Amino acid sequence: MTRKTLQDLFVHSLSDIYSAEKQLTRALGKLSRAASNEELSKAFQTHLEETQGQIERIDKVVESSGIRLKRIKCVAMEGLVEEGQELIEEIEKGPVLDAGLVGAAQKVEHYEIAAYGTLCALGKQLGLNDAVKLLQETLEEEKATDLKLTQFAQKAGNVQAQKAA
Ligand SMILES: [Fe+2]
What we know:
mainly alpha, Ferritin, 5 helices, binds fe (ii) ion, Ferritin-like, Ferritin-like domain-containing protein, YciF, DUF892_YciF-like
């Protein structure tokens, strides 16, 4: 067992989320195409653009803190993306699949919120103030996306309930 420093942990966590974001850019296009509700489809598209910006932000974090990312694969994101893909294969296009996609996307956002929250905390401890500022911006974006998805689910739920009444 090797003794790792807090800096090592920061680099590992940042490399992990970098991989996660890259995987997500490929997945969000699929989610957007699979969604039948236009608003939801657009929300995935918007988050795809944001995700590209988040990758650029990680590049800036790397520059500002003078670290080197490791080539690792985020297996958690791989699994989350796979679950979304399974839904697309198993459920026909429509409101039920949309509800499933919202849930799958929220699992992704919650993972990312946890990851960026941890990175902000580690960065603060390491005194990487510029990096923390950038990571905080992404954290806020992820939270906003999560909230948007919650609001969409509530609205869709209300429409379904009205239909059933
Ligand atoms: Fe992200």
